[in-house]
Specification:
2 copies of one chain form a homodimer.
Chain A lengths: L1 E7 L7 H14 L4 E7 L3 H5 L3 E3 L5 H8 L18 H13 L2 E8 L1 H9 L2 H6 L4 E6 L15 H22 L6 E6 L6 H4 L14 E3 L7 H15 L2 E6 L10 H4 L13 H13 L3 E4 L14 H19 L5 E9 L4 E8 H4 L20 H11 L21
Parallel strand pairs in A: 1-2, 1-4, 4-5, 6-8, 6-9, 7-8
Antiparallel strand pairs in A: 2-3, 10-11
Helix pairs in contact in A: 1-3, 1-12
Pfam families (chains A, B): PFK
InterPro entries (chains A, B): ATP_PFK (IPR022953), PFKA (IPR050929), Phosphofructokinase_dom (IPR000023), PKF_sf (IPR035966), PPi-PFK (IPR011404)
Keywords (chains A, B): Kinase, Magnesium, Metal-binding, Transferase
C-alpha cells in the first residue's frame, strides 16, 4: 500500500481535468494497493508549501463534474526547479514524508516534464524512494515522441471553426467594409495550433489564405504582396498568424514591429502589428482577432478524441506506477488515421524534458504560407466531432451553402 | 401574383441565414400568390447594380444547408441611401421594374431599417407601388420596441461562455502568472452584449469582476482602484469591456487612450489600452482577449431560441406582406420569462430607423460596474441551451467542480 499525489502545471488546456478525473478514478479502483490519493495545489508549489488536499473519497458524481470543468481544478503554476536548490527539494521532501507519498503524477508540458525529471533529486539528496510519472498536456502540441498532446485537439478545433466562421463573415462583408482579417494564435515556438487554422483548407480560395508559422522566417515584402494578391483575386484576405513568428534577425515580429515609424514603442501582439502594417501600406481595412486564453480554455468545444486521450494518459499513468515503472510519461502512438487508432506507450522523462517538437518540413508547403496534405491528414482526426454540425463533411467541417 | 426580393444588410449575425431560409420557405408555401423569389447580392447594392439571383426553386435540402451556414449567404453591405439621391433611386427602380418586383424584404439593424424606410421614395419618385418589410437582426441588440434582436442571443452565449472559461483558466493560473484578464466586446453605443458577460454572475467573486458598459462614463482612477481591490481580495481580476466606453469628455477611451505618456499614437482598441494602463500603473500581468468577428459569426454555438426567433421574423415578414402590411418590421414581445414565451408584432419602420436602444438604468447597478438581477433575468432565456453542457444549472451555466 502506498500514497500518491497528483498535480497540474503550466498553461491550462480544455481537457486537463479529464486526465485528473481519470487518474483519480483509476487509483480508486486499485484501493488494494493505493491507499491515499492527494492533490497538490498549484503544482509543485503545493508540494513546496505543503498545500495538499485529500481527494481519495471523491465520488463518481464529483469526478464527472471535474470532467465538466474548465481550467485546472487544483490550480497550476509556472515554476522552474533549480538543479541545486537543496532547500526547495528539502521542503518537497518534508511534504512527501509528512503524507507518506511514494508516487507523484505531474500533469504538464515540456517544463513540467523537466520538473518531474528533477524530482529524482529527492532520492539523491534524501534517499527517499519516489516514483515519478509525467502526464502530457499542452495546447502547443510540442512534446516529442507523442503523436499528439492532450488539449491540443480541442484547441485545434476552436481555431479551425474560428477561422471558418470569421472568414465566411468577412466574405459576406468585404464588398463595402473590412478586406482583411487576422487571427493571432498561441504557440510561440511551434506552429501546430496555427496550422490547425488550415485543417479544412483544400484549395487556394479556402481560408486562411496566408498561414504564418513560427517555423518560417517572416518576410514583410513577400507578406504584403500576398495580402494584395488575395485581396485583388478574391476581394478579401484571411490570415492566421502565430504569436511567435520571427523576422530575418531571429527577433519576434511582435517585438520588432512594435515600434512605429517614429521609433516609438507600440502596444499589442503580432496580430495588431500586422494589422497596422497592412492598413498603413496597403490601405486595406483590417480586423484582428486575438482569442488568447479563449483558445486554451474552450472546454465547451472539446473534441471526443481529445477527451478520450486525456483520460487514457491519466489512466495509464496510474497503471505504469503500479507496474513499477518510474520517470516515464505515457505517450500516444498513432496506429491508423481512418478510422483513428492509437496505443499508449511509456517514454522516459529525461528524453522529453525541455525538448520542443516543431512542425516537420513536410508539413509546410514550399511557398511557406500553406500546410501540406500530410499536415491536414495528421490534424483531421483530432478536430473531428461527429456531433458538431447538423451537416458536415467526412473531415468534420460544417457544410455551408454556396450560391452558384 | 407578385415577385419578391430578399436582401441582407449591415454586420453579420450567427443566425441571419435562418431568417433567410425561413422567409424563402414561407414564400414557397404561398406559391399561389408569390411568383418569383429573388435575392439581391450585397444588400441594397445588388438592387442598385442589378446583381440579382433567382432563388425561387431552392430545395428543402438547400434551405437546411443555408441554416447551417455562417455569415450572410447573399453578401451584405454598409451603405446609407441619401434622401435626395434621385439617380440611385432610379437605378433601384429600374432593377425592380426589370424583375417586376413588388415587395422588398430587408434584413438588417438600425441603418438597414433606415434603408427600408427610405425605399418608399421609389413610390414618390416613380409612382411604383412597393411593399417594404424590414426583418430585424443585430448582435448589438439595440433596436427599439423589440424585446430582442435575432443574432444577439447566440453572440450573448458566446460572450457568456468565453467569460466563464477564460476566468476559470485565470483562476487556475493566477498564483504565479497572469493576474488580470480583459475581454473586449462589440457594441459601440449599447452595452447589451457586454452585459451578457455577467448573465451567470450571482456573487461578487463570480466573473466578470468589473463590467465596463458604454452607458457609464469611464473613470480611470475608480477603475484602477477596483482592479486592485479584486486582485488583492481574490488573487485575480476579470474584466469585460465594451469597445465603446467613453471618458468624461465623451471621447471613446479606445481613441483618447491610444496616446502613450510621450504623446505618441498607439495601436489597438480599448482592451489593449486598459491592459497597458493596468500593467504600467499596477504592474499586474494582464491578458487581453479580442474576439472581434468571432463573437458575431459563432453559428456553431447558436442558441435554440435565437434560431427559433430568426426563423419566426423571416416567416412573419412574408405573412405581413401577404396581409397587405407595408413599411413595418416584425418585432418580438416577451410574454413570459420562465418558461420563455413570446409573440411577434409589427412595428412601423419609421419608428425604428436610426433609433438605438441602450441598457435601461434599472439594468445597471448603482456602482456602475455590475448589472442587476433584472438584467440577468432578461438575458437568461436567450443564452439558455438545454443541450449545451452535460451538467448545467437552470440558467444554462455549466456546473464546475469547486474544491472547498
Amino acid at each position: 500500500m502506498f500514497n500518491i499525489i497528483y498535480a497540474q502545471s503550466g498553461g491550462m488546456t480544455p481537457v486537463i481535468n479529464n486526465s485528473a478525473a481519470s487518474l483519480i478514478r483509476t487509483a480508486q479502483k486499485h484501493s488494494d494497493r493505493i491507499n491515499k490519493i492527494y492533490a497538490a495545489k498549484n503544482g509543485i508549489i503545493g508540494l513546496i508549501e505543503n498545500r495538499i488536499v485529500d481527494i481519495t473519497k471523491l465520488s463518481e458524481k464529483e469526478l464527472s463534474l471535474i470532467e465538466n470543468t474548465s481550467g485546472g481544478i487544483f490550480g497550476t503554476c509556472r515554476y522552474k526547479l533549480k538543479e541545486d536548490d537543496y532547500e526547495t527539494y528539502e521542503k518537497i521532501y518534508n511534504t512527501l514524508k509528512k503524507y507518506d507519498i511514494k508516487c507523484i503524477f505531474y500533469n504538464g508540458g515540456n517544463d513540467s516534464a523537466d520538473t518531474s525529471n528533477k524530482l529524482c533529486k529527492i532520492k539523491e539528496y534524501f534517499d527517499y524512494d519516489l516514483i515519478c510519472i509525467g502526464i502530457p498536456k499542452t495546447i502547443d502540441n510540442d512534446l516529442p515522441f507523442t503523436d499528439v498532446c492532450p488539449g491540443f485537439p480541442s484547441s485545434a478545433k476552436y481555431i479551425a471553426i474560428s477561422m471558418l466562421e470569421s472568414s465566411t463573415d468577412l466574405k459576406s462583408m468585404c464588398l463595402t467594409s473590412t478586406k482583411v482579417t487576422i487571427i493571432e494564435i498561441m504557440g510561440r515556438h511551434a506552429g501546430w495550433l496555427t496550422a490547425a487554422s488550415s485543417v479544412w483548407k483544400k484549395k487556394e480560395s479556402d481560408s486562411p489564405h496566408i498561414c504564418l508559422l513560427p517555423e518560417i522566417e517572416f518576410n514583410e515584402n513577400k507578406f504584403l504582396e500576398l495580402v494584395k494578391y488575395f485581396k485583388e483575386k478574391y476581394g478579401y484576405c484571411t490570415i492566421a498568424v502565430s504569436e511567435g513568428i520571427k523576422d530575418g534577425s531571429g527577433d519576434f515580429v511582435a517585438n520588432s514591429k512594435n515600434v512605429d515609424s517614429f521609433g516609438h514603442k507600440q502596444l499589442g501582439g503580432v496580430g495588431i502589428q500586422l494589422s497596422n502594417l497592412i492598413t498603413t501600406t496597403l490601405q486595406y481595412k483590417c480586423h484582428c482577432m486575438v482569442p488568447d486564453y479563449l483558445q486554451r480554455s474552450c472546454t465547451h468545444i472539446a473534441t471526443p478524441i481529445d477527451i478520450e486521450l486525456a483520460k487514457a494518459v491519466g489512466r495509464n499513468a496510474v497503471e505504469y506506477a503500479l507496474d513499477g515503472k518510474n520517470n516515464v510519461m505515457p505517450m500516444i502512438v498513432r496506429k491508423n488515421s481512418t478510422p483513428f487508432e492509437y496505443e499508449i506507450v511509456d517514454v522516459e522523462l529525461s528524453k522529453i524534458a525541455n525538448v520542443e517538437k516543431k512542425l516537420p518540413d513536410n508539413y509546410i508547403k514550399e511557398n511557406g504560407y500553406e500546410i501540406t496534405k500530410e499536415c491536414r491528414d495528421y490534424l483531421k482526426p483530432y478536430v473531428f466531432d461527429a456531433n458538431f454540425s447538423l451537416y458536415q463533411d467526412e473531415d468534420g467541417k460544417p457544410i455551408y451553402f454556396e450560391l452558384d
